[in-house]
Amino acid sequence: MGPIRRSSFLRLAFGAALAAAAAGGAAAQPANKTVYFLTWGGTVQQTLEKEGWGKKFTEATGYTVQLVPKATGPEIIAAAVAQKDNPQVDVVQSDLLPFLSGDDQGLFRPIDVKDIPNIAKLASVARINPNAIMTYGDVMAIIYNHEVFAQKKWAEPKAEWGELMRPEFRGSLVLPPVNTTYGLYGLITLARVHGGSEHEIGPGFDALKKLAPGIVEWPTTFARMGQFLQDGSAAVGFYSSSSAAEMARRGVPVKYVVPKPLFFTGTAAGIMKNAPNPEGAKAFLNWWISKEVMTFRAERYGNVTMNTEVTSNPIPIAALNEMQRVDYATVNARRADWIKVFEREVLPLK
């Protein structure tokens, strides 16, 4: 489908960006020179736009990248599913769990090292299946406002997941909801702390029900969580270590601990089947997983990157062998039911 037939969608999805370009007098790029990247805003948008890596991509390849941002992994994949029969984006990146659910629906095309040579530089764990690669990931952490802890004379959290259940944290907790990927990890984590697992999730819901009356908010993004931790209306949260580090860089008075067993949340990427710009998509994905870009992500945002040439990962890739294994197929199969239970039995308790 040519650019004229796609115009109404592009006006809706990218109107703000196109208007900004027009205001600056920039000529519109030919459709086959623009790569549309459906993923989060947040640190990805900061990387590409504010920190100049989008321009570096253009300099390296001749293509331009246009971000199509969403707030959460499920929203990213829902947007991709909505355009399955008429794709308007080229590359999709989200949390691993929702990405796999999208792959189950036939969203993505096979990718090969012949087209994306930097795949050969990735750790073996990064090659999820023929249609997906893991670009980077994060370890889950307990995040806390150290100023509030000092004022209340609370002991700093131990590196144990059971610390989330401490009674003094009642009225000071922020946890991601179960309809987000991090919320699912929180549910599974609490289930395992109390003798269950993703195969026996009941103990996790029992723990959430105990915590719910003392929850300040169920934020869906780290930025929203950071707001509560910054103003002191919350003191303890559950999110990724890289998000905690970014909060601290933005002036939020937080520290974090990474409890054992380690939980790793992966980020997956792939190319839309029948993407409007498949050659540009290959060029972008190859560039995105390069040593240069992934080194920046590791050093600036604390991501555990999958490129084996990166020497500044916050933890070695080999450490993934020690991390908790999650049965992703089971989680995706039961996810919708768990969300219903959460909304019906946990949310009303707040």
Oligomerization category of the chains in this entry? single chain
Radius of gyration, CA atoms, in whole angstroms: 21 Å
Task: Please provide the count of β strands.
Answer: 11
What is the first-to-last residue Cα distance?
49 Å
Taking pLDDT < 50 over at least 5 consecutive residues as the criterion, the unreliable ranges are 1-30
User: Shape from CA axes?
Assistant: globular
Strand content: 15-25%
Helicity level: 40-55%
Order of helices and strands: HEHHEHEHEEHEHHEHEHEEHHEH
> Counting H and I runs of at least 4 residues, what is the number of helices?
13
CATH third-tier fold name of the largest domain: D-Maltodextrin-Binding Protein, domain 2
CATH class category label of the largest domain: Alpha Beta
Structural class by SSE content = alpha/beta
How is this fold's topology laid out?
Layout: H1 7-23, E1 34-40, H2 42-50, H3 53-61, E2 64-70, H4 73-82, E3 91-95, H5 96-104, E4 127-129, E5 132-145, H6 146-152, E6 173-174, H7 181-193, H8 202-211, E7 215-217, H9 222-231, E8 236-240, H10 241-249, E9 254-257, E10 264-271, H11 278-288, H12 291-301, E11 304-305, H13 328-346
Parallel strand pairs: 1-2, 1-3, 6-7, 6-8
Antiparallel strand pairs: 3-10, 4-5, 5-8, 5-9, 5-10, 5-11
Task: Describe the 3D structure.
There is one protein chain. With 350 residues, the chain is α/β, with parallel strands linked by helices. It folds into two domains: 7-137 and 265-322, Periplasmic binding protein-like II (D-Maltodextrin-Binding Protein, domain 2); 138-264 and 326-349, Periplasmic binding protein-like II (D-Maltodextrin-Binding Protein, domain 2, 3-Layer(aba) Sandwich), CATH 3.40.190.10. The protein contains 13 helices and eleven strands. It has helices at residues 7-23, 42-50, 53-61, 73-82, 96-104, 146-152, 181-193, 202-211, 222-231, 241-249, 278-288, 291-301, 328-346; strands at 34-40, 64-70, 91-95, 127-129, 132-145, 173-174, 215-217, 236-240, 254-257, 264-271, 304-305. Helix 4 (73-82) packs parallel to helix 5, helix 5 crosses helix 13 and helix 7 (181-193) packs across helix 8. It is globular, with a radius of gyration of 21 Å. Residues 1-30 have low confidence and may be disordered.
